[in-house]
Give the backbone structure.
Amino acid sequence: MSTTTETHDQDVDQAAAEQPVESLRDLAVEEAALDLLAARVAAAKKNVRARMQTALDRAAKRDGVDRVAAELPTGQTVATISLRKGTVGPVVTDPEAFARWVARRWPEQRQEFTETRVVRTVKEWRAAELVAEMAALDLSLDGKGTRPALWPDPDTGELVEVPGVLIKPTSARTHSLTWRAGGKDATAEAWRTGTLARQFAAITTGGEK
């Protein structure tokens, strides 16, 4: 082995020896603290998202608001909260009634379109086709929670009410958070300096969870 290689290895060993060794006690308390912080952050985030959704829904209904800026006490905008509307579509709520309708509608293809397990149901591929055709129609609920689904008959143009399928909400309204450039660093600094002490009170105070 060359002298150069030996010198390099010695330097590496010396540097490693000079580094402080973390104690088990330090590591244990750090892990315990982070575990507590993670649990409290998760609970606080769930709580504030629910309150934010309620406030956004009210603002949207009252004033047509669909987004709001997240500003630090300094006035700097660090993120934007945007409302996401829920979706509505046809949902098979009574597979057996749906299957009976499909079997009556296409008697010659009954075996192709449906199958019998414990009860007769529409095969998944055919159900997906029909539901997609229903979803292509007007899906408005007109203030109602649900309404019967309609299927467009390609031969007659008639809109046929489909047993066992309802038009109903398929996903709830929610919201998203989009960070601005530099927003995360600014928020972290505000946290470090105590500027956001009121906002972080739910994390730093409270009893045993």
